[in-house]
């Protein structure tokens, strides 16, 4: 048996844990050749791939080192497969898979990538291809994947954000004058990460994060102004955690338009609203006001949750194993009922995930205290434990592809 | 004997190590009362202060926990003492110091704060005050303090920047298309921190950081465009490390003016140029281009260099000790000649530091390779070793003032 593994979509801090899991499962299940496609499905289309050297993988402790290495080590792509199954691209992909005698293809990615998994399986079905199983493995920091309790990648990003908000609070409190600090956090359509900034407050007797603005909640500029004014009565230095996709309901600050129309992948550039809002509040309230964009560091940091990393590993492992007998599936996490955090693993079809988005439940957004309570119960277990880095010369050293490939 | 300690200027990740050092020295030298002024000199003027509880300090391991706690725990200010020594402010300060029987006042801060130390000593001299010694203790992440080999605070910021650049490189390499990522790093007039991003490259066979722009070097927009074009011939995804104070020589992108005239302390807002440059390059070179501002996180992160923290502690310790017999001095670091990194401690007068700035030497800036070589030899020893954080519930927990004060 041979297999191929690829990574797609935006990086996370634990996407390589899923890769490590899939490789480990292939080794444990006596796969002959374990291929790694570079830059997602594009590597298969272009024939750019590597092969795992099982001896080196073990010898160089690549499993543990992959679990400490943020961002997609295989590279990624944002390639959307054509709707037309007769398109030449499909032929190229399956010619490659047959040539290399691939039995299992594991695609680690987000909802766009699960669309790829879905289409490849439709192609398999229509063309009656036997012996090639295509399995998805979920990842995203945004936690907006449907059909599961939470997405691998979210816990580590939430941990980084909560950790960073604690240090930002330490900075913000330094001066004895009124100030507003708006922290812009990833999340285009869902506010999971912005909301998880509230974890920073856990165990403190005062709030470190004072206001949270997420795309799921409607606020006018006037509402925001009033929120800030009221908070400033209680607290000198206020911190607002804001999802990058949040806008005031009237889009009052959207003109002039944001710097560019798209990021090169047809996703519009949405960040930068925090800066505008900071300017607006400074002007209106005559208060020191600034914005901090956490930017790409939040999806690629070495602040990795052990819980998240272990779960991502397990999902990768299960994905590869599922592919031995089945196709068109994605392993996912379910949370067991009960006081203590415990998960079970099951699987769903890509149709449940592809092109869909999970948002924060409406009843969590009733008021700030409810959101704080709900998100803490939900996300605190996901940020537990730390993954140690290997330091050399004062900096973390990451595993390289050459450490475990031929 | 009594003493008082205060922190001033912008936070650093090790400014509390200097505080820990000063407190420890006061305990070791049998000071009776150890006061802590809140928000720098303003605490003395307003009578806002705390007193160290020596038993709690020991019992709660405050020394070690302060050395792991980023950002000024006593708060800070940007208060500039009046030039006129007859101003009422001086009277207020010395009335307080006499009332509390203060023999030693240690002021931990940057070049603005050393101006305060200088003025207080001039006041002491003119008014023939005996028994009150005012000593400075240096800190700044910018490394622009004159009269010393390097500033405490710089090593940790450099460590955070180099560390973060490694993770940004891991993110940037993910897509198989040309891209430019501009990382905006603190430094208004000196490029020490931007240059120290080059440490990220150490031990790698390819450059992780491709271009460095610092305020000390003149570049036109055309020069930058050509630099980027040339680098893109060798490397698909290029990273530019840019000091926030860097501008193209013609200031072509300065209009419309930056968001606000000052940050509330009469320091102009200088950040945001990276975003404009990213927009410009995207437009000119038709390339995916983005900016990442490291922002306040770089001065307040938990990525603390053990070397830096230990040196900051020692300087705080020496500052308090110096104050027992002398006034108008600042302990500083000197680097010993020789292959291995070793420092000695000496002291200088505040006049050498106050209101001055140390820039990167001209001969380091001859070309990129020279800068890489020079900054590596200079700064690599300063980022060695890690200070462990105490984690609870997946997040770092910091020492609080109430853990070691009455």
From TrEMBL, chains A, B:
Boundaries of each Phosphofructokinase domain copy?
3-319
Which residues make up the binding site for substrate? 140-142, 186-188, 244
- Some GO term, biological process aspect, for this entry: which one? fructose 6-phosphate metabolic process
**UniProt activity-regulation remark:** Non-allosteric.
Spell out the subcellular localization from the entry: Cytoplasm
Record bears the keyword Nucleotide-binding: no
Q: Name one GO cellular component term.
A: cytoplasm
Catalytic center at which residues?
Answer: 142 (proton acceptor)
Question: GO molecular-function annotation terms?
Answer: 6-phosphofructokinase activity; diphosphate-fructose-6-phosphate 1-phosphotransferase activity; metal ion binding
Q: Which InterPro entries match?
A: ATP_PFK (IPR022953), PFKA (IPR050929), Phosphofructokinase_dom (IPR000023), PKF_sf (IPR035966), PPi-PFK (IPR011404)
Where diphosphate binds, per the record, is at 10
Marked site: Important for catalytic activity: 139
Which residues are listed under the site Important for catalytic activity and substrate specificity?
112
> Gene3D superfamilies given for it?
3.40.50.450, Phosphofructokinase domain
Subunit-level organization: Homodimer.
Family, according to the entry, reads as follows: Belongs to the phosphofructokinase type A (PFKA) family. PPi-dependent PFK group II subfamily. Clade 'B2' sub-subfamily.
Q: What is this protein called?
A: Pyrophosphate--fructose 6-phosphate 1-phosphotransferase
Q: Which organism is it from?
A: Anaerococcus tetradius
């Amino acid at each position: 048996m041979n297999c191929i593994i690829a990574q797609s979509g935006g990086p996370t801090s634990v996407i390589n844990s899923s890769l490590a899991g899939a490789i480990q499962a292939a080794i444990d299940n006596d796969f002959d050749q374990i291929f790694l496609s570079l830059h997602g499905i594009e590597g298969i289309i272009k024939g750019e791939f590597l092969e795992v050297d099982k001896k080196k993988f073990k010898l160089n402790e690549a499993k543990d080192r992959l679990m400490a290495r943020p961002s997609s080590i295989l590279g990624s792509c944002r390639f959307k497969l054509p709707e037309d199954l007769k398109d030449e691209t499909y032929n190229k992909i399956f010619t490659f898979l047959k040539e290399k005698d691939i039995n299992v293809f594991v695609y680690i990615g987000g909802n766009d990538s699960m669309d790829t998994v879905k289409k490849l399986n439709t192609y398999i079905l229509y063309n009656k291809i036997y012996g090639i199983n295509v399995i998805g493995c979920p990842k995203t920091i945004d936690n907006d994947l449907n059909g599961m309790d939470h997405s691998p990648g979210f816990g580590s990003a939430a941990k980084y954000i909560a950790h960073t908000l604690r240090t930002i609070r330490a900075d913000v409190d330094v001066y004895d004058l009124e100030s507003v600090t708006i922290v812009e956090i990833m999340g285009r359509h869902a506010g999971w990460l912005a909301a998880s900034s509230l974890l920073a407050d856990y165990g403190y007797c005062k709030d470190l994060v004072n206001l949270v603005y997420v795309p799921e909640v409607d606020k006018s500029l006037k509402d925001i102004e009033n929120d800030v004014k009221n908070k400033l009565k209680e607290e000198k230095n206020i911190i607002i955690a804001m999802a990058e996709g949040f806008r005031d309901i009237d889009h009052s600050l959207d003109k002039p338009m944001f710097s560019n129309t798209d990021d090169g992948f047809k996703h519009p550039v949405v960040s930068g609203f925090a800066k505008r809002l900071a300017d607006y509040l400074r002007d209106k309230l005559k208060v020191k006001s600034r914005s901090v964009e956490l930017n790409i560091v939040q999806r690629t940091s070495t602040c990795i949750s052990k819980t998240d990393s272990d779960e991502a590993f397990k999902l990768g492992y299960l994905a590869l194993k599922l592919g031995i007998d089945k196709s068109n599936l994605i392993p996912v996490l379910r949370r067991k009922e009960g006081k203590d955090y415990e998960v079970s693993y099951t699987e769903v079809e890509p149709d449940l995930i592809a092109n869909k988005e999970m948002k924060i439940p409406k009843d969590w957004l009733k008021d700030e205290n409810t959101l704080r309570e709900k998100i803490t119960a939900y996300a605190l277990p996901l940020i537990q434990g730390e993954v140690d880095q290997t330091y050399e010369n004062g900096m973390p050293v990451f595993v390289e592809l050459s450490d475990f490939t031929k």
